[in-house]
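Annex B. Sample input.
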Amino acid sequence: MSIAKVLGIETEYGIIATGVDSSPVTSSSLLINSYVSRFDATIGWDFDAERPGSDARGFSLDDVFPQDIEMSMVNTVLTNGARYYVDHAHPEVSTPECRTASEAVLFDRAGEEIVRQSMDAAKRVLPAGAELVAYKNNSDGKGNSYGCHENYLVSRSTPFGELAALITTHFVTRQVFCGAGKVGSEFEGMPSASVAFQLSQRADFFEEEIGLETTLKRPIVNTRDEPHCDPMKYRRLHVIVGDANMSEIATFLKLGTTAILLAMIEDEQLDSSLVLATPVAAIRHISHDPTLRQKVLLESGKTFTALELQDALCERAERYAERFGLESVGEEDGKLILRRWREVIEGLKEDPMSMRHVIDWVAKKRIVDGMSERHNLRANDSRLKAIDLQYHDMRADKCLALRANLETMTNKEDVLAATTTPPDTTRAYFRGMCLKKWPTDVVAANWDSIVFDIGREPLRRVPMMEPLRGTRQLTESLIAQSSSPSELVASLGDQVSSSSFKPTN
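Annex B, continued. Sample output.
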């Protein structure tokens, strides 16, 4: 049987400094420091278990090259269980581990709110008229792309090669409903103006079907084998092929449909009949055709549009749900995912513009087309590119996505609560509540452990190798009954080990 699909999102934000001379690295550091300086303590990230060079194909570049980890950058853990840090000169928010797609949408929204609060906090310490502006997009328009990555818990028993082969078609075609939209092209050698508008911000940047890289020679399926949990039981499928979405429904479907298909692969209920012949070319060709008529070739020799392939995948998922149920993604969430997936497919078949309230690329295209018609602008006019960027502006009074009447799944009160409170349903609860209760006694934390200073040497490391332990149900009373980290550590007994952790700054 398929395992529970614990999941989350890592979002790199674009950043621009106005009214002050500041590099992206400095701006990103100032943004994050302005936010975390409000708290009693800043909890650093523990890099002890970081192995970015470990490859699911059975080797590790960590054994050959030194780890390239930016340990000197701002890197902190928040009380909602999330990670907030500087990554490759961008501010990045990683949501806490979530049990369902709808929960992940909430914490993705909380990440946006944290960035907005960071911008406000930074403005208060900058010179008059200066500010840092963050954008939830994926490209600077100059050939540089930054990511929005997804993570899914999958079974180690499913061969990685099989997983990669069967999920690729979905990764290539799901952009019809979760693409964020883009004016022009940044595909090397192609004039930008040759593509007036495309579905995805990221499609131009993928060069390989499968590989370990995330910034160069980007692969459709990433092979990083860094589970952040029991490696004998689980994998963490690290997905780099998605756009950063402003639409909550698009985020929900991006995560939810992928989770269901991964469960189907684990249950051997997704066959190879829909495998693409040339995925790298297909992802770009699909993106460059907002009419959704572009056909792509399968290994079988048949051709289909991306929408037809999504229709076929949805049909298979519907049959799977009838036979196996959807407990792996949460039954209620699963039913909603299937219903909205079907609605979006049928809506796109009928008229893509009918989906402007749920799909980012459609909402953005409507705005761009309106601007172009009103002012008689040519494709790729700089004003259209400015509109493209403004769609993702994190300033509430400037963000065009907030004016596009996009359907929402969350409310303001829940989003604000989620900026400081972790989800109940995963180990993120234990991490976040320990940071809340003992902010000055937690030395560092990461996804799979917390390091405590219990007042005497050595430091103590509490492992969290099971993503579905450490939930509210399992640990709330333990945390409440412990008056100090020392009592907590004593209660956990043999689970705790000594730690040689040394702070990096």
